[in-house]
């Protein structure tokens, strides 16, 4: 049927539904660059209110940009999903004015739990942090999925 | 000599030097409740710009309040120290208006690396997150330490 | 009723059922010292086949002794439970002939997922490793629980 | 000069020096399949003494095979290096008779600390575990490096 949605179209639809509700992501200046089935890419500029007096970005904001990519990636299958935990490693500092890009994808998505690897890089492609997020599905969907849609998680 | 500083006085002095420089912590409304040798306790109120449309606090801000307690705890020995990595587990959601308390202490502090356990609770004492931070000392001190001061890390 | 089992009696019964099946734990010389509701304490002696030529114990065996304490602690509520993941930090080396003690307890046990903190110490009480295990319940119980038994996880 | 060693030749030499000393790895049946600059691939067969009565491999041995790949990868630059910590996620069970392959490489190697991603798969290529190891260099080299050798860590 012509109405079937591809996994990437489902991912885009989920992001479109999440975004208007995502005041916190917008508050820190997150820009969604791309979403796909199990993947996402977002950007954030390091602002004055994210740095200390030496111009170094707080770890919390490096975490936050990675966490946003994680959230859009793990919610891309039309199952509402929350972050259960994260292991993050800080590799290089980020500075005032840097544009951080966080992107990544599912390494595993089982029935309920998933693992997502997100990398944070700066505008020069330098690796800033490695983030491994643990996702847990909760009840609920973002939208009624057409009967003929193919979702790899529904098998 | 009467001029000797105790480890807790050293910790307080380090915090006093860090705080004016810590624009990011102040920007998210962090309040330093207590610092000691290898420990810290801070608070943060969950604001409108930290939640989604359902009033749930973003993980990034739960991380941030824990990360602040970690920063003040691991920098309390007058050695400049950065966060190398964190394992965080999200246990219960935090909501708009909650006052989150993050407190914790060193589980280990060796010559260069340390491990700090931070708990985040809400105003009712409910456990919100467990955060285990990995600290790495870099070069530098916050202030010239008097010769007769006792620092447990200098042994 | 006099037949009601306490949470600690339930924990002991679960361990009694697990142990005969636990060839691997016996193979590395694990000794169960204590089990309780959400907690366990085990010991392991560092043998010749666990060390390198300098007499230092491989990290895998330090992990293994902690993992055993974790397994008995997280299976103590008569719900079959598996390890979903672990964050371990190695703090000091263990040596040939050391008797390692791993003990710990639940920091959180929700409906399906739990967090357990296990410490590994040597015979002198020196901290060797910190292990934070993530538990996931699967289907099944170890034994039919009497109707009047109190399990804190069943509320 | 013709005597210059490539980074991969240095890695092979380090492994050749480590292996005779590595009683524990040999004790659990580790086979080194390949080593390179910052990478390693090893195998281990799941034996009777590694499983429980249902034939499921203990997590400790899944950890151990990954930890061996990590050890050979992070020691491949002719700097003695130890594991400081690990985040491991168990994804699927391993069974009696499985041949587990652990392989991976450095995601980052700074002056003193490194991050290594190791995957464990079974003989069918099924993902069993994801392991992220944190490496810390200590003093010492495996061999005297020729003056004209190129080591990317020596820059």
What does this structure look like?
- The structure is a homotetramer of 155-residue chains.
- Chain A is an alpha+beta fold.
- The first copy, chain A, has one domain (7-147): Roll (Thiol Ester Dehydrase, Chain A).
- Chain A is built from 3 helices and 6 strands, in the order ααββαββββ.
- The first copy, chain A, has helices at 7-18, 23-27, 59-74; strands spanning 31-36, 39-45, 81-90, 99-109, 113-121, 127-137.
- The first copy, chain A, has a 6-stranded antiparallel β-sheet with strand order 1-2-4-5-6-3.
- The radius of gyration of chain A is 16 Å and the shape is elongated.
- The interface between A and D is small, with 11 and 11 residues.
- Strand 3 (81-90) of chain A pairs antiparallel with strand 3 (81-90) of chain B.
**Series of H and E elements of chain A:** HHEEHEEEE
**Architecture of chain A, according to CATH?**
Roll
Mean pLDDT across all residues of chain A, rounded?
91
Shape of chain A: elongated
* Total number of beta strands of chain A: 6
Q: Helix and strand layout, with pairings?
A:
4 copies of one chain form a homotetramer.
Chain A: H1 7-18, H2 23-27, E1 31-36, E2 39-45, H3 59-74, E3 81-90, E4 99-109, E5 113-121, E6 127-137
Antiparallel strand pairs in A: 1-2, 2-4, 3-6, 4-5, 5-6
What's a concise summary of this model?
Chain A has helices at about 5-20, 25, 60-75; strands at about 30-35, 40-45, 80-90, 100-110, 115-120, 125-135. With about 160 residues, chain A is an alpha+beta fold.
